[in-house]
Amino acid sequence: MNARRVLHLHSSFDAGGKEVRCVRLINAFGSEFAHTIVSAERGAMAAAKLISSAITVDYPGNFPSLVGSPALGRLKELARAMAGFDLVLTYNWGAMDAVMAHGLFARSLGLPPLIHHEDGFNSDEAERLKTRRNIYRRLALRRASALVVPSFRLERIAREVWHQPARRVHRIANGIPTAAYAVLPAPDALPGLVKGEGEKWIGTLAGLRAVKDLPAMVRAFAPLPPEWRLVILGDGPEREAILDEARRLGVATRVHLPGFAPDPAKVVGLFDIFALSSRSEQFPISVVEAMAAGLPVAAPQVGDVAQMVAKKNAPYIVPKGDEAALAGAFAALAADPALRQAIGQANWEKARESYDEGAMLAAYHALYAGAIEEHGPR
Q: Global pTM?
């Protein structure tokens, strides 16, 4: 059987949580599908290097831009570019014009089924969703085969705010190969950074974007004793703002930004505490990775984080925007090795029980293949 052709329309294909999940699905499904990947942010394609060389994948340079005025002519051009595929997969607000184009022209142009994925919001909607965007999403999604969300909060928003019918909304929790995180990494597992004898690390995996509020993490970290280091793994435009805050607080020699970690399983176990400082999250896969590595988590109460971690970890999930409470969580965990171990063990057990990738892979495959089969041959 010929590989079924899947078109991926991303807001960005840099190596963040949703992009890495997409790559894991692409690699896991193997030769069953051939993939065409487009990013709304031209050049934001760092996740492409994580795709197996055995996979058939194309990155067209002439695909119509996903960004622009939602004029009817532009939307029709986008719709025409979807013809000839077996399935269209769209991701987040940056691809919503493509969803609208599909909704308007799917019948007249005989387009394939479309499944949209919503994983969260950027800083412009971190505090409050925009009414016009909510209306636009509601209209655009009316002919989508499915809407996939990873969190309970997004499921509620999809149903109550975007008025999506229950049959269309699929909550699929992010999963990882939990066993891969159980091996303790070597102290030099991170290129250019070695964990020294007696050092303790607070760490995070995050795109260096404003919504992650990483300068707040630096401020919460700064009062800790000198044996503690802050290690932020990721790339993005906020790098200098983070370093500026570290210099301002006099902790620049203890704050490290080694860049993106292509294989988190090989490095997350170097952390002693995993941290978030985000203004908005939904179901952050980095928290699952930390749990699978047996770490305690200190984070604001955003998205599903409080429900994701084990009950023993609950006191260290603090109110969103409360930097003093986050600093207190850091200090309490840093001061008590036995507490860190007990919480880490509980998180490890929950990760293995609830967040292994097998269930996630099966759910996505069933959804994608089912949509193609229901639509029938081109």
A: 0.76
